[in-house]
Amino acid sequence: MSGRWWAGAGVALVAVAAGLTAAALAAGRRLPVEHVSEGGLELDRPPGEVWDVLTAVDLFPAWRPGLAHVERLPATATGGLRWREYGKHGHTTYEVVESAAPHRLVTGIADPDLPYGGTWTYVLTPAGRGCTLTVTERGEVYQPLYRAVSHYVTGEGATVHRYLRALAHRMAAA
Predict the structure, then answer these.
(1) In sequence order, what DSSP letters do the residues of 140-170 get, joined into one string?
(2) CATH class label, 31-173
(3) Looking only at Cα atoms, what is the longest distance across the chain?
(4) Could you tell me which InterPro entries the record lists for this protein (predicted)?
């Protein structure tokens, strides 16, 4: 094939990519910045045992896929736990916003420079010899392109469901 054909094909690919990006940006601008996702899990473990797993941040890399390591940080001004998670997409700093052991935990992103933010509320409700865990993500995605990808490609509830699958696996192994 001639060089002109390859050059034309390259220009066409760039044009298609630019068009897709523009469409995704337009779609993302129409989506709300905030979203709420929820998921639940029935566990054959008492709330206190599940609580210990939810709050043992140093052990997260052992059961959460994609998490390379965790660094503990100085506590918040009110004494709340803070930590930084490192994974394949960089790092994110989190903090405990509210803690009522062993029934309610609220964590949040503590890094205002990220293109996203939000909180996760974990509620443990006793159920027979075990408990039910409900996780509610109240997320914010500030950049329109990321919003479109989150909404249309990965799904806004993907993080909650991935977390619950990993936790179910971890608790089954205990």
Answers:
(1) EE-SHHHHHIIIIII-TTHHHHHHHHHHHHH
(2) alpha beta
(3) 72
(4) Polyketide_cyclase/dehydratase (IPR019587), START-like_dom_sf (IPR023393)
Looking at per-residue pLDDT, the higher value among 166 and 141 belongs to: 166
pLDDT value of position 27: 55
Name every residue whose Cβ is closer than 8 Å to that of residue 96 and which is 6 or more positions away in sequence.
Answer: 55, 76, 80, 81, 82, 105, 106, 107
pTM equals: 0.85
**Cα pseudo-dihedral 51, 86, 66, 79, rounded to 10:** 10
What are the extents of the domains in the chain?
Answer: 31-173
Give mean pLDDT, residues 81-95: 95
Residues 6+ positions from 39 with CB-CB distance below 8 Å: 134, 135, 157, 160, 161, 163, 164
Phi first, then psi, for residue 76 (nearest 5°) are: -70, 175
**Side chain identity at 23, as an amino acid letter?**
A
104-146 tens-digit pLDDT: 999 999 998 998 999 999 999 999 999 999 999 999 988 887 7
**What is the average per-residue pLDDT within 95-110?**
97
Tokens representing 110 are 């503590």
Token pair listed for 94:
């989190």
